[in-house]
Specification:
Distance between the termini: 37 Å
Order of helices and strands: HEEHHE
Largest sheet: 3 strands, mixed
Strand order of the largest sheet: 1-2-3
Radius of gyration: 16 Å
Strand content: 25-35%
Helix content: 25-40%
């Protein structure tokens, strides 16, 4: 958007906070269901872009989350991540307002 790129920008801060919160939601749901996940990794990428909301031009936010649960089978990992997406406060705050794409990785 602007600036020299030598400092942390708001998108990086938002991405870090969303990743931490989402990881906590995955961990919480796994504990509730007594599921072993291994070390949970959540990486985020936050992008800004132009959009037309019908009321003039503006900017929108897109978030890509990449979640790794190394001790879970793929289908079970996807189910747990979907549950976390329903319970994560950041997911709930952005739902219907921010495009969020989630990629899940289970056992390799």
């Amino acid at each position: 958007m602007g600036g020299t790129g030598k400092a942390t920008n708001p998108e990086q801060l938002f991405g870090a906070a969303y990743s931490a919160c989402f990881g906590g939601a995955v961990e919480y749901n796994a504990q509730q269901k007594k599921i072993k996940t291994g070390d949970i990794t959540v990486k985020s990428r936050v992008s800004l872009g132009r959009f037309d909301a019908g009321e003039g031009e503006g900017f929108g936010i897109k978030v890509d989350l990449d979640v790794t649960l190394p001790e879970m089978e793929q289908a079970a990992a996807e189910e747990l991540v979907a549950w976390a997406h329903r319970t994560c406060p950041y997911s709930n705050a952005t739902r219907g307002n921010v495009e969020v794409n989630i990629t899940t990785h289970g056992k390799q």
